[in-house]
Write a structure and sequence with these properties.
With about 350 residues, this protein is an alpha/beta fold. The chain is about 40% helix and about 15% strand.
């Protein structure tokens, strides 16, 4: 009788919807039977996301259907799925923490805590004390520039330098209605300097893309000279020989902590749990570093050309500020920039 009780407990431990941890061997076997999962992701460059999906598939024989978009587009797609009573997305990885606050409150997330949560850099642990979503990516919004147009000594050193009239027609940004990175940056600038920061920036007529990665395209093309850009995509492009560089603003690079979660009702629950485990692995951290994202595991060094996060002055809004504030700044942005 005791033997059967133990087996029942073990099975519940692996397959139960409220599992906190998993027996890894049993989880792997169950995940392989499911065979695939769909990943809505905004965290990484397209190349980085595809490589993570491919590496997971190579390790476990489980196909990852990678759907890479900007954060707000991913969320819109997800909410449309939910509205239509469809469960297409298995693992959701956004750069806007507010998405998770709302999804959790609506009971749309599966509770699950990866085994290696205590092995990642301490600053990234415990994002949701209840265990519904977890940090799986981190990066910085900082000052970026085209080195063929701007000398290092002339590059902006503070965020407010972007407001200097000398940069009129030379600034690039993404859009907070599409990019979680940009939304968090806009919110942080508003917190530091008030909305007048953007009233002044508007006078410099910035080129506004969608994704924060669009700033890389604008700088490479010479259409703009300086930007509020992401560390990872900028350094990745520079490593390919493009004339780009980053500058850590003295008033603080904006730290982006991006979570992942498993969607409630997924038909690939075990594959999703195993994928969450994988995102916390050293292998995943190495791929992130290869694509110039911040590695979550301390065993993996910072990418070439980047400082370790511990050596950078960073600023970030709270989870509550992001949840309430990003929808507000999207509307303010549209009022100011007209798009």
């Amino acid at each position: 009788m005791k033997k059967w009780a133990s087996l029942i407990i073990a099975a519940a431990f692996v397959f139960g919807p409220m599992t906190a941890h998993a027996d890894m061997k049993a989880l792997e076997e169950a995940a392989k039977k499911e065979g695939e999962l769909t990943w809505y992701v905004a965290h990484y460059t397209s190349e980085g996301a595809e490589e993570l999906g491919a590496d997971f598939g190579k390790l476990y024989g489980i196909k990852v259907n990678v759907v890479r978009t900007t954060a707000q587009v991913a969320y819109q797609r997800l909410t449309q799925d939910i509205k239509n009573n469809q469960t297409i997305c298995d693992v959701f990885s956004s750069t806007d923490i507010g998405h998770y606050v709302r999804l959790k409150a609506e009971g749309k997330l599966e509770k699950y805590t990866p085994e290696d949560t205590t092995k990642i850099v301490e600053a990234f642990r415990g994002l949701d004390p209840d265990g519904y979503y977890h940090t799986t990516s981190a990066g910085l919004v900082l000052l970026t520039y085209n080195t063929s147009k701007v000398k290092p000594e002339d590059a902006p050193k503070n965020w407010t330098d972007l407001l200097d009239p000398k940069w009129k027609g030379k600034v690039s940004t993404g859009h907070p209605a599409f990019s979680g990175y940009v939304g968090t940056w806009v919110l942080m600038m508003k917190k530091l300097y008030g909305w007048s920061f953007f009233d002044k920036l508007e006078k410099n007529k910035p080129q506004i893309g969608r994704s924060i990665n669009d700033t890389v395209t604008a700088l490479n093309a010479g259409e703009r000279q300086v930007a509020a850009g992401a560390d990872g995509s900028t350094l990745f492009s520079a490593a390919r020989g493009n004339p780009l560089a980053i500058s850590y603003p003295k008033d603080g690079a904006v730290l982006i902590i991006a979570p992942s979660s498993i969607m409630k009702g997924t038909k690939h629950l075990n594959a999703s749990k195993l994928f969450m485990e994988y995102l916390y692995s050293v292998e995943a951290a190495k791929i992130n570093a290869k694509h110039f994202a911040v590695p979550l595991r301390p065993e993996v060094p910072a990418p070439p050309g980047a400082k370790p996060v511990a050596e950078v002055k960073t600023v970030k809004p709270t989870v509550a500020e992001i949840d309430k504030g990003i929808p507000e700044v999207i509307e303010q942005w549209r009022d100011t920039f007209g798009n």
